[in-house]
Amino acid sequence: MAITVKDVAKKAGVATSTVSRVINDHPSISETTKKKVRKVMDDLGYVPNMTARNLGKRTSNAVGVILPPLDSKERLGNPFYLEIMEAINDEARLYDMTTAIATAKSFELLLENVKRMHLQKQVDGFILVYSDSADPVIEYLYENQIPFTLIGQPYQHENNIVYVDNDNQLLGKQATEFLIQNGHKNILFVTNTTHESLYFERYFGYQKALMLNQFPPFPSVVLEKPEDYLTFNDTLAKTNATALVVIDDIFALRTMQLAEMYGYSIPDDLSVVSFNNSIFSTLTHPYLTSIDIDISELGRMAMQKLREIIHDELSSGVRMVIPHKLIKRETVIPLAE
């Protein structure tokens, strides 16, 4: 039989409201009474109901993790989101906090979900795990002064937003430089998104590496619509491409399959470098050369900084940069002279 507040109150010789105030550490209760009630709670093995406690404190001890609209199979299956949620959840557990997920198939519905979670006080703050130029959610959070952190680089208010990110421009530059070091100069940047911050940064880095080596960068190869896939073979032929930098691991596998369908062999005809170092990088042969962005640390730091904001320990904008490293595998070989 579960021990209740009434049981504690009866044994301690106080009112149930007093027990509730002790649970919430209310200043109106003396330290002597608090010690007495807490000893009874320990003796009886009473565990406070955190939901009831948080309602009394007007807090939820929960954070909302906001995912981007999951409007494609690549996004639905992208292990980045699962890994980042696991890291956030592990860190939240250290603070006796829980996590709730906000997701939808469109930004409009996503904003509705976030508003509902905030207005119903389901969470104390939010972590955005993406940065998208079309996103109305971040502006809602910013304008309403709702505690939040961002994984990624904001498009505006950079000096006022707390965000955790890799140096994505450097990632794009180093991925491209690795291919250049292996003798490649006709290198394409392939992506399935053109409105996320990491796309712009990684593509800028790609351009920078080629220009610094006096090679011409190409326009990014965008494979978003079915008709884009039909022209991919023509693009490879026209550019005489020998290597690809692809936006992330899961899309790199799709791109490699497409290239092989058109008769290209990986890595003999096309070398490939990608990002995230996810589980997909070693699921099929050849194993994918990928840049590890330390997803766990991104999630951990975002949660840590959000907790500081919620407890008024951090107010102004802060940028946290998480280190990365290139994992060499089988999809890059030196270009034969």
From TrEMBL:
<protein>
    <submittedName>
        <fullName>LacI family transcriptional regulator</fullName>
    </submittedName>
</protein>
<dbReference type="InterPro" id="IPR000843">
    <property type="entry name" value="HTH_LacI"/>
</dbReference>
<dbReference type="InterPro" id="IPR028082">
    <property type="entry name" value="Peripla_BP_I"/>
</dbReference>
<dbReference type="GO" id="GO:0003700">
    <property type="term" value="F:DNA-binding transcription factor activity"/>
</dbReference>
<dbReference type="InterPro" id="IPR046335">
    <property type="entry name" value="LacI/GalR-like_sensor"/>
</dbReference>
<dbReference type="Pfam" id="PF00356">
    <property type="entry name" value="LacI"/>
</dbReference>
<dbReference type="GO" id="GO:0000976">
    <property type="term" value="F:transcription cis-regulatory region binding"/>
</dbReference>
<dbReference type="Pfam" id="PF13377">
    <property type="entry name" value="Peripla_BP_3"/>
</dbReference>
<dbReference type="InterPro" id="IPR010982">
    <property type="entry name" value="Lambda_DNA-bd_dom_sf"/>
</dbReference>
